[in-house]
Design goal:
The complex is a heterodimer. Chain A is of the alpha/beta class. Chain A has seven helices and ten strands. The mean pLDDT of chain A is 89. By secondary structure, chain B is of the alpha+beta class. Chain B contains twelve helices and twelve strands. In chain B, strands 1, 3, 4, 5, 6, 7, 8, 9, 11 and 12 form a ten-stranded mixed β-sheet that branches. In chain B, a hairpin with a 2-residue loop joins strand 3 and strand 4. In chain B, helix 2 packs antiparallel against helix 11. About 2% of the residues of chain B have low confidence. The chains are: A alpha/beta, B alpha+beta. Chains A and B meet through helix 2 and helix 3 of A and helix 1, helix 9 and helix 12 of B.
Amino acid sequence: MPAVVQVENLRKEFGKVRALDAVSFEIQEGEWIAIMGPSGSGKTTLINILGGLDTPTSGRAAVDGVEVGRLDEAGLTRFRAEKIGFVFQQFHLVPYLTAVENVMLAQYFHSTTDEQEARQALERVGLGDRTEHLPTQLSGGEQQRVAVARALINQPKLILADEPTGNLDEANEKIVLDLLRELHSEGRTILMVTHAPTIGALADRRIDFSHGHLVSQQGAGAPEEK
Amino acid sequence: MFWRLVFQLLRGSRARLTVAILALVSGAAVISGLLNLDFGVEDQLTQQFRTLGANVIIAPPPGQSTPDAPLADFELMDEAAVLGQMRQFAGANVFAPFAYVITRVEETPIVAVGTWLDQLQKLNPTWKLEGNWISSRADTSACLIGRNASKQLRVNAGDRLQLQYLTRNASCKISGIIDSGASDDNQVFLNLDALQRLAAIPGKISVVQVSASGSPQTVAATAGQLGAALPQLQVHPIREVTDAEGALLGRIRLLIVSMIMLILALTALCVLATMAALAMERRADVGLMKALGGSITRIVSLFVAEVGLLGAVGGFAGTILGVGLSYWMGFRVFGIAVTPQWQIFPITIILMTLVAMAGAWPLRLLGEVKPAIILRGE
């Protein structure tokens, strides 16, 4: 079976700064990958390229067979709507939309909306009784769970989670991690950026970055050290 | 979902959008008020100018008579032929035939005018009368006299008047004294048949005065139609009246159009300032929408619909206020009752929607938003 994510010799430069350099790895369907490394190591740049929010300077980054660097603006927009589910550290919910409307927003940009399906997605993350609440009426953990429901609603091939528990207290962190664990057990492919080794340990495989280079891979499915 | 999102956008930015909607409502109120006044003033001015008297004259062609021709042929028209053609122009138009002859009253020369006495007041609504108007066209015993003539002849309402023309005499009882403020004050007005008998010009008239209804253009058109129907006669609008009306209407319309353009520009500027601030506020939302796979066309269409809705609602609410404003201004400034002109509703709503969309120009900047940068919190 071909890899869901294929990254080959990927390079990204911002002016004279090389954010990613000669990065290569693959992710198989259903894998949970933790991307780790210090600030400025290129983790978020990698996620942005794989999520179609940015394009590589050179090299290849493909998700579900679609090479991001070859897409134009409209193609990237469709790619984000159809292939990717984002979960951000800052939650990034639209403040004047209710929880269910935030989930439906992803449906709206993907194809057509189905309110019943959006409510079921919220029930699944334990927010069945908070569907009509605005983000300001929800706790941080609840907001992140809405973001997870939104990321799942279009059945994306890849869930990109950038520090998904970075802004949460311990109790809410556990809830969100349990959710990710549950998604993983269902066979979802998850790429998660985190600083915390304990959270990184939950993933099948851990990929470490430093100064834009992939420095190591550990865990199941990691290529053997040469 | 589209309209649900639009309403949530409106709700989410209601504080800032209140400024825009206030600008749109105010702009629409003034514009619709001016438009209503413009339409109303045209009707009212047309009516007011009609009170100044006849605005079209039908007369014999010049140079038809010779100096030694008998009176019967001297610049006179055939009453039956002219009035027969005039019937098709009845209705909104008021007209009456006139015949003039210089008579003597106890050796004092005075112009006697034969006409349809029942039409005098309709043709000259501003004339003042001391006594009674004559309501019967067939009444040959009553007459009206101008203020100056009554003083000159020392007669009053109720007195009898003996008019002499050559060897013939006519007598009438003065029903009222006219104060027109013009040369009519020097004349005596009597029944047309009575004057024709006195002057021995049966079936002949000097002119037909017409008070044509409508705008200056309509009056000119009516004169043209009359001219075509009566090609052997002179038909011409009285330029002093129609030109004055046209000039006044033109000036009022220029003023109103200038003010409308100015207000449209000011409203657009106000909406533009609000939308520029709103565009900055919404960068994060747009960045997120783009990250979720929203195309710029779908995202901007939400904002365009939001602004269009604001313009339409502002235009509608403003028009209701504007109609009230024009009613008030009509009374206070022009002394007329301006009735609501319903066609200003679609005109104002369309104008305000277009202005709102023009003012939303800064929202185009949202197309440049890079989601990766926004999501990093920059």
